[in-house]
Amino acid sequence: MANPTARNPAPPVSQEEQRPRPASANSARLSLGDFELTVFSDGNYLLDGGAFFGVVPKPLWEKKMKPDDFNRLHVGLNSVLIRTGKHTVLVETGIGNKLSEKLTRIYQPQAKLPGNLEAAGVAPDEIDIVINTHLHFDHCGWNTIRRGDSLLPAFPRARYYVQAGEWRHGSLQHERDRISYMSDNYDPLIASGQMQLLHGDQEIVPGVSVKVYPGHTRNMQAVMIKSGSRRACYISDLIPTTAHLDLNWVMAFDLFPLETIESRKRFYEHAIPERWLVIFTHDPQTPWAYVERDGSGRLLASSAAATL
Fold this sequence. Notes:
The chain is α+β, with helices and mostly antiparallel strands and about 300 residues long. The chain has nine helices and 17 strands.
């Protein structure tokens, strides 16, 4: 871990940035420099607790998230809308409504994102950029919508972005993780030219860029947000919830768990001393927070925590 004193310390966080404001029943909003960030929920879905926490023993993880009688957890689906003043950027599109009957029974998705956007006055054609951190079905489900026999972009004016390597891996339909990839969520957009395949770290628009953090998948990308002196990061499944802050609390879903640990080290090296706002993709209660270390070095989530 780098010495925090080796960098210019981040300026104090203003009360405006510390205090999330409710935007609707299933969203929370705050300002980051000149940008406005709003978290929108696609609702919760069910995941097996053992898979969600990997090799971490259940007596430890159930202190942080309580399972039901079938060892399932209610897991969040948090998207973030970034208004830069020139662009309206949506990061992640939830689980959607195109799962098979069997998968719908297993995961019990709630498909709330379109309604929550509408309740906040956000029209689909207002969004001009959609960023998928990766292409697992719970992150890109509302990329497209089904109309009869056709699959159409849910955000008709938007250009979509994902890493080329992520799309190539999903196209392989490997036995290990093919259930996670549903081509209806992205192949129509690639065929139409509406989805752009990236090759590594890249700025999307001023103040919004992507950075690859391998571990969960080889080409998962985080979304980096910067306005003035303030920074935020949608870290996606590298750190899915505030219960996964510890370096070794890695999901069983991660294809490269040792790389997850190294990527987390690399992330914390900047996020903690520079006081980045961290946005958590699957936390059902705390969509964003600042990550700190206590006197013993233990990682904690604090400050801008908001309850959806």
